[in-house]
Design goal:
2-enoyl-CoA Hydratase, Chain A, domain 1, seven-stranded mixed sheet, about 15% strand
Length: about 260
């Protein structure tokens, strides 16, 4: 896998999967302007590159991400905070707008905005003993980075408020039982399991995956009538794709389909 490194982000592409590794291990991969700009640029590249069919976001060192840089808290002005969150929001929106699966691969801690970055992803894979922490209220702040949007929709408004108020660590087992972690893997096998999961998705019908992601996300704030009509319009397009033709042919020939993402 060919890799590239900015100050705070390592990128690489292998077998149709773009790997983005948050790379500030000394700060538990707390967000920085360089990291956020790198994520935005990489997600744009993933959007434009047909060879990229899945994106995996992970963290280097001991954690996925601590989110905001605690060492700099108390020294930022309201304008600094507003501008920093503008950059964070652009990353969150880019993840949601990307019509390709985005996987968050979490080990160690995913805290604050780092936790919310995982919630913006389509799939969350986690290593044993990982923890998710909504630490904002501990320092007199509200959740940002989309947490107040994603969490209530994922686990219900009352559970979400309790977690946001109390700011207690959430074990990976509880996260799985609440429904926002898809799979838990042993830490020794974690990297291999993530790569296997992503590689399998990368061989799928990526055009259909994009349609599914777009409509499923829209369903969170649309009416049944709107989604039914969107399904109707989109399916009329999906049947014209090469992937659909290949899927039908493979089904009739009793073989595994070879999707090309077209």
């Amino acid at each position: 896998m060919k890799t590239e490194m900015s100050n705070h982000l390592v990128t690489g592409v292998k077998d149709g999967v773009m790997y983005l590794t948050l790379n500030r291990p000394e700060s538990l991969n707390a967000f920085s302007p360089d990291m956020l700009n790198g994520l935005k640029a990489s997600l744009q590249q993933a959007k434009e590159d047909d060879e990229v069919r899945v994106v995996v976001i992970s963290g280097s060192g001991r954690a996925f991400s601590a989110g905001g840089d605690v060492k700099k808290m108390g020294s930022k002005s309201p304008l600094d905070t507003y501008e920093h969150l503008g950059d964070t929001n652009e990353v969150i929106l880019a993840i949601k707008a990307l019509e390709k699966p985005v996987i968050a691969a979490v080990h160690g801690y995913a805290a604050g905005a780092g936790f919310n970055l995982t919630l913006a992803s389509d799939i969350i894979l986690a290593a044993e003993q990982s923890k998710f922490i909504l630490s904002f209220s501990k320092v007199g702040l509200i959740s940002d980075g989309g947490g107040l949007y994603f969490l209530p929709r994922l686990i219900g408004i009352h559970r979400a408020k309790e977690l946001l108020f109390n700011a207690e660590p959430i074990s990976v087992e509880e996260a799985h039982s609440l429904g926002f972690v898809n799979h838990i893997y042993p830490i020794a096998d974690f990297e291999k399991e993530v790569e296997s999961f992503a590689a399998k998705l990368a061989t799928g019908p990526s055009v259909a995956f994009g349609f599914i992601k777009k409509i499923a996300d829209r369903s969170l704030h649309a009416t049944l009538e709107e989604i039914l009509e969107q399904e109707r319009i989109t399916q009329a397009t999906a049947i014209t794709t090469a992937d659909h033709s290949e899927g039908v042919k493979a089904f009739k020939e009793k073989r595994i389909p070879h999707f090309t993402g077209k």
